[in-house]
Amino acid sequence: xxxxxxxxxxxxxxxxxxxxxxxxxxxxxxxxxxxxxxxxxxxxxxxxxxxxxxxxxxxxxxxxxxxxxxxxxxxxxxxxxxxxxxxxxxxxxxxxxxxxxxxxxxxxxxxxxxxxxxxxxxxxxxxxxxxxxxxxxxxxxxxxxxxxxxxxxxxxxxxxxxxxxxxxxxxxxxxxxxxxxxxxxxxxxxxxxxxxxxxxxxxxxxxxxxxxxxxxxxxxxxxxxxxxxxx
Length: 231
Fold this sequence. Notes:
Layout: E1 2-8, H1 19-24, E2 27-33, E3 49-52, H2 67-80, E4 85-88, H3 90-98, E5 103-114, E6 117-118, H4 120-123, E7 135-143, E8 150-154, E9 162-165, E10 169-172, H5 184-188, H6 191-196, H7 201-228
Parallel strand pairs: 1-2, 1-3, 3-4, 4-10
Antiparallel strand pairs: 5-7, 6-8, 8-9, 9-10
Helix pairs in contact: 2-3
C-alpha cells in the first residue's frame, strides 16, 4: 500500500473525516504528534502523502514551540521535491511559511460554519465539491499568498482560504474534515475564540449539528478528487 503520514499538532485535531477517502485511495495511514520524542527525526520526504493538520498555535510562535522551525525546514524540502502534500488550517499556514510567505495574525476570529467563495481557478479544482456548502472555520491567522500558486477560494473575512500548486500541493484554511468527529467537544472548550467571533458555544454546537454531516460529505468528495489527480 501507499503510505500517508498525518502530522498532528494537537490531539483533538486529527484527520477526522478525511480518513475515509485517504484509505479508499489505497493509503495506509500513520500518524505522528509534534510532541512525540522522535518527531525531530521523522523523514518528511519518504511518505507517499503527507497531511498536516491544524492547531491553536501560530506559525510565528517559535519560541514557545521550537518544533515549528524544524517542521517548516523539512516541509520546505518536501515541497521542493513536489511530493504530494495537504495542509489544513495551521497546516496550510505551515505550507505558506515553508514557501517563503509571511504568516501573521488576521483582523478577526473566523469561527463557525459558513460557505466559502470558489473563484474561477477553483471551479475546475477539487474545491468545486464544497461550493455553497457551509464548512467549519476556526482561525485568526492568515498568510501572504506564496509565489507560483493558484488561489482557489476566499471568504468575506479572509481572502486566502485555499490554494494549490499543480496537482500535488493543496492548502486549505478551513476545516471540511470536521462535522462528525466527537473530538469537536474539545474544540468547544476554547470558548474565548467562540466569543471573539461573536458566537456562543450553544450557537456553534447548533451549527455543527445542522451542517456537520453535509460539510464532511463534501469534504470527502473534495479530497477523493484531489487524491485522484496526484502525479
